[in-house]
Design brief:
Elements (H helix, E strand, L loop, with lengths): L1 E5 L5 H10 L3 E5 L3 H8 L10 H11 L2 E4 L7 E4 L16 H10 L7 E5 L7 H11 L9 E5 L9 H7 L2 E5 L2 H11 L7 E5 H32 L3 H8 L22 H8 L5 H26 L5 E5 L14 H11 L3 E5 L10 H5 L4 E4 L11 H4 L6 E4 L12 E4 L13
Parallel strand pairs: 1-2, 1-4, 2-3, 4-5, 5-6, 7-8, 9-10, 9-11, 11-12, 12-13
Antiparallel strand pairs: 6-7
Helix pairs in contact: 1-3, 8-10, 8-11, 11-12
This protein binds ligand SAJ.
Length: about 425
């Protein structure tokens, strides 16, 4: 198969590389000339385990080439961003999807398949994408095949999950579904679930909304337990021993380009019907302010003004700071007058070592669960003015006995902890 993948980000690039690795001829398209040149030279712009090796393999096979303009193919895959609009309910902005479609339209021929992988609001395929193709004189389901196949892979485990996760294929017609399923047959070993386009759109959004709502519940529990002076983490651990309970983990907030974005697509499409989802978003959005309040309170008891953030990414072992609560907390702490230093071995622009970041600091604030933070060496904490560590991710395993270790389980033991 000849496949053109438009959008070489966290999803499009791994997808393109896998198609190439499995013997297809793949053209990767992105607006950035520097990025496409780098890819052709074997250099990645994102961190994802296994991707570098697979890129080398695809290039060695001669099956992958990146460029800034689409080329003719049998199947087109669109994996471009769909941010929130700045409107009342933060609805789905399909501008990049529409311009990607416009860029491939001149190359379309009878029997081609177009697959939208980007996360989209319910009814986008039938209300926006299908009319765009039919305006060009094609009949969808007869001479062009159109499907929404949402990506559902977890950053950090993308290369494995792309192959092994079940894949939802939502065609505009049954024939569209069959054609798109055949495309993914190239490498997907997970179950292929055939669906209608609208079902595929909404199920993807509800997966992330499910997680967002459950994290909101855990974050609310952290606040409740702090107020009631009960260990929230023990409560979660014990409750989860029940066979039908799966409380999620509290943290500094919900980030990334999925959970903090997608629920709004459903909310905007049905605002009157979605009060629970809206409150969950508010609870998760409140967490950076909650963390900053706790930091202010902890710092009020001590001399010194330096706070050291461990981890700026939206979650552990990745380099992605998009929609990261850690970045928001960093800005809020700076605005509050703290002298903020950051240590993040996964973010290239952060150049301080752990020792440098901790020097003369009064508090370490762990905001991302990078595995490097599991064991905190004494060489970091020895340099501190006051040895206090607040681990919002409950991930630190070992730290010097000289350090006062706090997490959402024991924060209430500090008399200055704030019950909000
Ligand atoms: N988080 C918590 N507590 C938890 C779990 C996560 O606070 O118990 C936070 C994380 O720290 C992070 C945010 O939630 O800030 C999101 O992280 P995540 O690991 O839950 O998810 P993403 O955004 O990296 O990927 C999600 C995944 N969706 C689901 O698990 C339902 C992934 O499978 C999707 O493909 C991806 O969204 C996407 O692209 O939509």
């Amino acid at each position: 198969m000849k496949i053109t993948v438009v959008g070489l980000g966290y999803i499009g690039l791994p997808t393109a590389i896998l198609f190439a690795k499995y013997g297809n001829t793949v053209a990767g398209v992105d607006l950035s000339p520097i990025m496409t040149e780098n890819l052709n030279a074997g250099h990645l712009h994102i961190e994802e385990p296994g991707l570098a090796e697979d890129l080398q393999q695809a290039l060695a096979l001669g099956n992958f080439h990146a460029s800034t303009t689409p080329v003719s193919a049998d199947a087109y895959i669109i994996a471009v961003p769909t941010p929130n609009k700045q409107d009342l309910y933060k609805s789905c902005n399909t501008a990049y999807v529409e311009s990607a479609l416009m860029s491939i339209i001149p190359h379309l021929k009878k029997n081609d398949t177009i697959i939208v992988e980007s996360t989209i609001a319910p009814r986008t395929m039938t209300d926006i994408v299908q009319p765009m193709i039919e305006n060009e004189g094609f009949t969808v389901g007869e001479d062009i095949y159109l499907a929404h196949c949402p990506e559902r892979v977890l950053p950090g485990n993308i290369m494995h999950e792309l192959v092994h996760n079940p894949r939802i294929i939502g065609g505009i017609t049954t024939k569209c579904t069959e054609k798109a399923a055949a495309v993914y047959g190239a490498f997907v070993e997970g179950e292929i679930i055939k669906a209608e386009a609208g079902e595929a759109e909404l199920s993807k959004l509800m997966e992330n909304t499910y997680r967002d709502v459950n994290i909101a519940l855990a974050n609310e529990l952290a606040k409740i337990s702090n107020y009631l002076e009960i260990d929230a983490l023990r409560v979660i651990e014990m409750a989860n021993k029940h066979p039908r309970v799966n409380l999620h983990q509290p943290g500094p907030g919900v980030g990334g380009h999925c959970l903090a974005v997608d629920p709004y697509f459903v909310i905007a499409a049905a605002p009157e019907q979605s009060p629970l989802m809206q409150v969950a978003r508010e609870v998760n959005n409140s967490m950076p302010t909650h963390v900053v309040s706790q930091v202010k309170s902890l710092m009020a008891e001590h001399t010194g003004n330096r706070v050291t953030i461990f981890g700026l990414t939206y979650k552990g072992n990745i380099d992605d700071t998009r929609e990261s609560p850690a970045m928001e907390i960093k800005e809020m702490l700076i605005e509050s007058g703290f002298d903020v230093r950051a240590f993040d071995p996964h973010v290239a622009s952060e150049i301080l070592t752990g020792e440098e970041a901790c020097e003369d600091s009064s508090l370490i604030l762990v905001l991302s669960d990078h595995s490097e933070f599991r064991d905190i060496p004494a060489s970091y904490t020895d340099k501190m003015r006051h040895q206090i560590l607040f681990d919002t991710k409950n991930m630190v395993q070992t730290v010097s006995d000289d350090v006062t270790y706090l997490n959402y389980g024991n924060l209430h033991t500090q008399k200055q902890a704030i019950s909000i």
